[in-house]
Amino acid sequence: MNNPGLISEIAQIFGNQFIVLAIDARFENNDWVVYKNGGRIKTELELFSWAKQAESLGCGEILFTSMNHDGTKNGFAVDALRKLTNNLNIPVIASGGAGTIKDFENVFSYSNVEAALAASVFHYKEIEIRHLKNELFKNGIPVRT
C-alpha cells in the first residue's frame, strides 16, 4: 500500500468495521509473500506481518486469498489461515481453493475464520448454497439463514 496512514484516517472517519483489507499472497521459498495488482506484482511484504500492521492501523477485517490455492478446488490454505486468526484480533475471511463442502467444513473446523469466500463452485452450481449451509449446520458450524 502506498499510503498506510490512509487506513487509520478512514478508520477514524467511518470506523474500522468498514475497512476490509484484501491480501493476495503466494507461498514461495517457505514464506507467504504479498502480491498486489491482482497478484501480478510481488511486494516485499510478508503476509503475517502485513496483516498485523494493517490491524494496528485500523483495519477491521482481513480477506486473505492464497494464490497457491485459488482456482484449484483443492481446499483452502488452512495452516496459513489458522496462523492469521491466531495472531490477529480482527475477523479473517478465507478465499481461494473451495471445491467441496468438506473444504468449507475443514476451514471452519481447523481455523478460526469468520467466513469463507467461493465463486465458481456456486456460479456453476457445483455446490448449492442451501445444501452447503445445511451440511455445515449439521456439523455444528454456525451459519446465517
Secondary-structure blueprint:
Layout: H1 5-14, E1 20-28, E2 31-36, E3 41-46, H2 47-57, E4 61-66, H3 78-87, E5 92-95, H4 101-110, E6 115-117, H5 120-123, H6 129-138
Parallel strand pairs: 1-4, 4-5, 5-6
Antiparallel strand pairs: 1-2, 2-3
Structure description:
The protein is α/β, with parallel strands linked by helices and 145 residues long. The chain has a single domain, classed as Aldolase class I (TIM Barrel, Alpha-Beta Barrel), CATH 3.20.20.70. Helix content is 38%, strand content 23%. The chain has 6 helices and 6 strands, in the order H-E-E-E-H-E-H-E-H-E-H-H. The chain has helices spanning 5-14, 47-57, 78-87, 101-110, 120-123, 129-138, and strands at residues 20-28, 31-36, 41-46, 61-66, 92-95, 115-117. The protein has a 6-stranded mixed β-sheet, covered by helices on one side. Strand 5, helix 4 and strand 6 form a beta-alpha-beta unit. The model has no long low-confidence stretch (mean pLDDT 94).
